Amino acid sequence: MEEMHDRLVEKVQTLSDLEIAVLICLVAEQHCIFETEAQLLDTVESELKLILDFTSTKFSQVATHVFGLTWAVLECNEQTTLDHFGCGILAKNETSDDYFNSKSEASNFASLSGSPKRPDRRASKTPNAFTQLDSGRIANIVIAKNLDRANSQVQTQALELMRGKRNFTRTAVYAAPRPFLLVALNELNTTRLSMHLNDQFFMSHKHNFEDSLPNLEEQHQKAQVLDDDQSTSSVIRTPPFVSAKSASLAALFSAEDLATFNARMAKVKISSEVRAYLHNIVVFMRLHRAVAGGISALSTRHFSTLAYALAPLHGLDYISPSTVALAARKIYPHRIVIIAPENERSLQWGSSLEAVKAVLDGVTADDVVEEVLQSVEVPL
Fold first, then answer.
1. Domain at 1-93+135-217, CATH homologous superfamily
2. The predicted structure's pLDDT at residue 135
3. How far are the Cα atoms of 106, 107, 139, 140, 254 from residue 175, in angstroms, in the given order?
4. CA–CA separation, 135 and 96 (whole Å)
5. Helix (H, G, I), strand (E, B) or coil at 128
6. In the chain, what percentage of residues exceed pLDDT 70?
7. pLDDT value, residue 189
8. C-beta pairs of 127-131 under 8 Å, 24+ apart in sequence
9. Domain segments of the chain: what residues?
10. Based on C-alpha coordinates, what's the Rg of the chain?
């Protein structure tokens, strides 16, 4: 068992930041937000696709990927409708059979209601437009691009999918598979998601220009080498065709690996001193003069859950103070609401509004988290 655990920890140490974030959410069975610059949205999306399901056989007959899960990309904007949402969350990288031979996870409303079935009349009136929708299934990983731009109805539907693990369309009810992860890929410094949806997201991760995208870089290098080989060769060579179905897919983290991490997470211990440290961070966060809200009860539960999930990924069976600090940096930045200067509490006992504006000028949620971590005494 220890050798297997060491092997898993070694594999974790080879992952990039994006891959680790996805792994944490899969282990904790929660959802996350990825934020990046507008120019990097498409590249981060491509990197996530390679992380989830790298099934290209262009460079190798043995395809490799990190998780080997189905994915779907949902492009959101102000005009996104509930129908677009229902269609966009269905798996796109899955080879499915025709409508009559595929096993759909959808359940017709007629069968749910218990009313008498009328197959002949209903089948003749069902429009062909829903055939593709009804035959699909929700992807394991849904990348909701620019979800913050979607209208309130779409964001409410996303919240219901996260909480209820089901999505209702006009013709069917789709159950989310297991594992299931909703990733909100948004631009930095833009409008936040609706309050309840934002709080439902487990953690957030920011990808900057200097951060690497190893899977995309490796793919580009292989493509460049292949192009160079083809240009220097005078003989036309046709690479052997290997179908995606017959290719041997080797996932770096299998379902058994995720189950092992989840089982070890349940056995993680926490001392009374570290538990008090975690509690004090929450209290200091709520009392910080720059915080107007966002430190909810759900965020506190997520804070504790992430601390437990990080321990086995670092090869530990206990929660350390550094693990708690790392969890705080991932749980609270997307939740903290910075207070307006005119609402700052010190004005009630005579502080100057101009002085408060100067103190709060440029303060971000990340600054609040770092200041709280420096203020709270770390247990030895």
1. P-loop containing nucleotide triphosphate hydrolases (3.40.50.300)
2. 65
3. 7, 9, 10, 11, 22
4. 8
5. helix
6. 77
7. 84
8. 130/170, 130/171, 131/99
9. 1-93+135-217, 267-375
10. 24
- Spatial CA neighbour of 310 closest among 288, 281, 331, 284: 331
Q: What is the pTM (predicted TM-score) of this model?
A: 0.80
Report residue 36 as tokens: 């990046």
The model's pLDDT over 259-284, given as tens digits with 9 standing for 90+, comes to 999 999 999 999 999 999 999 999 99
What three-state secondary structure class fits 67? coil
Pair of tokens at residue 90: 């269905």
Residue at 178: amino acid letter: R
Q: Alpha-carbon distance 363 to 375, whole Å?
A: 16
State both tokens at 85: 């949402």
CATH 3.40.50.1980 fits 267-375, yes or no: no
pLDDT at 147: 96
Residue with tokens 């990808």: 207
Q: How confident is the model over 317-375, as pLDDT tens digits?
A: 999 999 999 999 999 999 999 999 999 999 988 889 999 999 999 999 999 999 999 99
pLDDT the model gives residue 2: 59
Tokens of 83: 């129908």
Report d(CA 361, CA 356) in Å as an integer: 8
CA 316-307-337 angle, to 5 degrees, is 155
CB-count burial class (<10 Å; 0-12, 13-18, 19+) for 12:
buried
CB 78 within 8 A of CB 150: yes
Could you say which residues of the chain have pLDDT below 50?
Answer: 1, 54-64, 95-133, 234-248
Residues 41-57 have pLDDT tens digits of 999 999 888 887 644 43
Q: Which helix (H) or strand (E) holds 245?
A: none
